[in-house]
Amino acid sequence: MNRVLKIVSLLLSYPDEELLSACGELKTALQAEKAIGPEGKQLLARLLDDLAGHELYDAQERYVHLFDRTRSLSLHLFEHVHGESRDRGQAMVDLMAMYEDNGFLIDAKELPDYLPLFLEYLSTRPQAEIDELLAQTGHITAALGERLKKCRSIYANAFAALGLLSRNKPDSKLLDELLKGTEDDPDDLAALDRIWEEEAVTFGGNAGENSCGPDRLRTQIRAASRRPDGPAITPSV
């Protein structure tokens, strides 16, 4: 297992009591890893220290404000390349098939393009596959990192670390196109309401009752992460 990717996956997940209490343990595990150099370790250690220093409610509120209330900072990868188009549905199906073909099973309510889940999958794969998939998504994660850096969020550290883990630079043309896009205002509640009212997205023949708009899907992820039988994204490394 690539433990650094596992740690980044955890850091980008919705913070719960288990994660905040495990920050010290994760920091110790990080220092022993050889997959990332001193600069990357320092970036992730600072984010771990920051999370450990927050009250749970404050950490959760910050996370929701950043990642759940704007599309420009969405942690759903296909949001940035497909939006709500039909192409997103097929991309979801293809990604789910890749997970299943490699024995990686996810919670029924978890979207396959949720970045923490994608990184957890990568943490289980051979280095060649890690390099390929980090390269394919590099322009998206780089854009997220730039936007977070612009708003001076400590979460930019996680994306900077991903950039150091990748052996390929992001496609500059694709990155520029993403950065030219509109950056949503998380405090614009009228715009948020419009997103909630948009047509549902489906990505398979058995989507059924789990078919819903982007923010409701994020709410499902939040609920799943709090359940005792929730997704297998845990602080154990």
Question: Brief overview, please?
Answer:
The protein has 237 residues and is mainly α. The protein is 58% helix and 0% strand. The chain starts with a helix and ends in an 11-residue tail after the last helix.
Q: Any overview of this molecule?
A:
By secondary structure, the protein is mostly helical. It has one domain (3-226). It is built from 13 helices and no strands. It has helices at residues 3-11, 17-21, 23-31, 38-52, 56-68, 86-101, 115-122, 127-136, 138-150, 156-165, 172-179, 189-196, 214-226. Helix 9 (138-150) packs antiparallel against helix 10 and helix 9 crosses helix 11 (172-179).
The number of helical runs is 13
Indicate how many domains the architecture comprises: 1
Tell me the fraction of residues in β-strands, as a range: under 5%
Q: In angstroms, what separates the terminal alpha carbons?
A: 9 Å
List the helices and strands and how they pair.
Elements: H1 3-11, H2 17-21, H3 23-31, H4 38-52, H5 56-68, H6 86-101, H7 115-122, H8 127-136, H9 138-150, H10 156-165, H11 172-179, H12 189-196, H13 214-226
Helix pairs in contact: 1-7, 3-4, 4-10, 9-10, 9-11
Which key terms come to mind for this protein?
237 residues; mainly alpha; disordered C terminus
